[in-house]
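Hello,

Our lab assistant flagged a job as stuck in the queue for most of the afternoon. It eventually completed. Since we weren't sure the result was trustworthy after the delay, we are filing this so someone can double-check. Below is the sequence as submitted and the structure that was eventually returned. Let us know if re-running is recommended.
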Amino acid sequence: MSSWSCPHLDEPTEHCRRLKTDCVPGRPGCVLPSTLIFATPLEERLRSKKKQSRSEKKQSRSDASADQAIGSPRTRTDTDSAEGTIPHS
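-- returned structure --
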């Protein structure tokens, strides 16, 4: 068993700076030698990374919309009552 390192990998984000996309070792354009053999086929790793990216984007969108929905609480004014707005005479 061996390991590899890549000068283009941004480790905290697992992003390829060369290809400007998610790092999937062995994908077209990758600088790793084409003679490397991976336990999981490239197509499966690409599908898995796409699925993971979509779920992360979906989660971040739902978090953002939940933050917007919370907003600031409405304050009561003198024209409000427990049942609704008090009509003015």
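-- support follow-up --
The delay was a queue issue, not a problem with the job. The result is valid. The first strand starts at residue 9 and ends at 10. The chain has a mean pLDDT of 77.
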